[in-house]
Write a structure and sequence with these properties.
Elements: H1 19-30, E1 35-39, E2 48-51, E3 59-64, E4 67-72, E5 86-88, E6 91-93, E7 100-102, E8 107-109, E9 123-124, E10 126-129, E11 132-135, H2 139-142, H3 149-152, E12 160-170, H4 174-181, H5 187-190, E13 198-207, E14 211-218, H6 229-241, E15 251-256, E16 260-265, E17 268-278, E18 281-291, H7 300-334, H8 349-362
Antiparallel strand pairs: 1-11, 2-3, 2-5, 3-4, 4-9, 6-7, 7-8, 10-11, 12-18, 13-14, 14-15, 15-16, 16-17, 17-18
Length: 365
């Protein structure tokens, strides 16, 4: 297990602008480690499908008679994408020439061909954990059985439903995204809403070889909501939902290396996955899941919407952090210098763990 308190320094500024390093990250990390596809709740019913934007819309989860499977969303005829978004259909029909496949990926119609070509969509084997489907090697996923009981107990997807998905474009390096996710030093000072929703004074860290997790408590039992209108409404919704009998945990943030984040808050669990799009760009695909019992409440939809809106408000603020860090690092690069300060022993312990992971995988920074 990687020690979160190893003496490693922060990464050099060049690590966020080096094209050769980015290619190495793609080869040694993203192409070798498990790649998140999607959650089973994206396709809960028979014949449901969901196209995955983080795979260039080239993959789709399909709930067929044989269960949930992952197929290529590229037609075998002229390589057009077949499906868009989410929906429900027994047949997967390409709009270009109406080549049609059944929900096991087998071609069943090719108009005007005298003989039906014996073709089917490429299928990708996945490994599922808590309903999350991954492509690639399973060792890192198997290690998640060692998550602490407190963490696993919050990941109750069986009692959840999928809300909606968003794609956030970010103008900074993907590593920068994970760095501010893995440090709590900025929460109170930068986030007027989140900083009055949770308290990092009793921050607890958990570390494994392939993951890290953080747990924080509520800030003053949600009695001082701060200056965010959205968070003030969310505070009230949470207190109403729990009838003022708040749980001991205000939020939990789990990172599964290299790029999958699962965040638990009252009334919403978020799966977000960040992908590099260049040294100065990344994309974050955000999936919102809500407790199933909200469906039974007349105010349930409003509560779910408030939780998602509060999350988005903090995500926008985090985006500002990322852009300012990127701007500062670019200024240092332009001056051909590199600067970095010390890690805070507890509040930035996750950054130490992440940087050590990168060094172990890349052997070059």
């Amino acid at each position: 297990m990687i020690s979160p308190l190893s003496p490693a320094t922060q990464l050099p500024v060049s690590a966020y602008f080096d094209e050769a390093l980015l290619r190495r990250e793609q080869d040694e990390i993203f192409n070798k480690w498990p790649r998140y596809a999607g959650h089973s709740l994206l396709v809960p019913a028979l014949n449901d499908y969901c196209v995955l934007p983080h795979h260039h819309n080239g993959l789709a989860m399909v709930h067929g008679e044989q269960g949930i499977q992952l197929f290529s969303n590229v037609c075998r005829h002229r390589q057009a994408t077949i499906l868009q978004g989410r929906g429900n259909s027994k047949r997967l029909s390409c709009p270009m020439h109406r080549w049609t496949y059944d929900n096991s990926g087998v071609l069943i119609a090719a108009p005007k061909f005298t003989e039906l070509p014996c073709m089917q969509l490429e299928r990708f084997q996945t490994t599922a954990w808590k309903g999350l489907h991954f492509i690639g090697k399973t060792d890192a996923i198997n290690e998640l059985v060692n998550l602490p009981r407190d963490v696993k107990g919050l990941l109750d997807f069986e009692s959840s439903y999928f809300g909606h998905m968003e794609v956030h474009e970010c103008n900074f390096n993907w590593k920068t995204f994970l760095e501010f996710y893995l440090e709590d030093y900025h929460v109170a000072s930068f986030h007027p809403g989140l900083g009055h929703f949770v308290s990092c004074d009793n921050l607890r860290w958990f570390f494994g070889a392939n993951w890290s997790a953080q747990m924080v408590s509520f800030h003053k039992r949600l009695e001082q909501p701060g200056n965010s209108e959205i968070y003030r409404a969310w505070h009230q919704a949470v207190r109403t939902y729990y009838a003022d009998d708040l749980p001991s945990i205000g939020a939990m943030w789990l990172l599964i290396y290299p790029n999958v984040m699962i965040e638990w808050y009252p009334l919403v669990t978020v799966i977000s996955t960040v992908f590099p799009k260049g040294t100065g760009r990344c994309v974050n695909v955000v999936e919102y899941y809500h407790p199933l019992d909200l469906k039974m409440r007349p105010d349930g939809d409003a509560m779910a919407s408030l939780a998602a809106s509060a999350y988005l408000e903090t995500a926008v603020e985090d985006n500002q952090i990322g852009e300012r860090i990127h701007e500062g690092r670019f200024a240092l690069m332009s001056r051909r210098t590199s600067e970095y300060g010390p890690y805070h022993e507890n509040l930035e312990a996750g950054m130490v763990h992440f940087h050590q992971f990168l060094r172990d995988q890349l052997n070059c920074i």
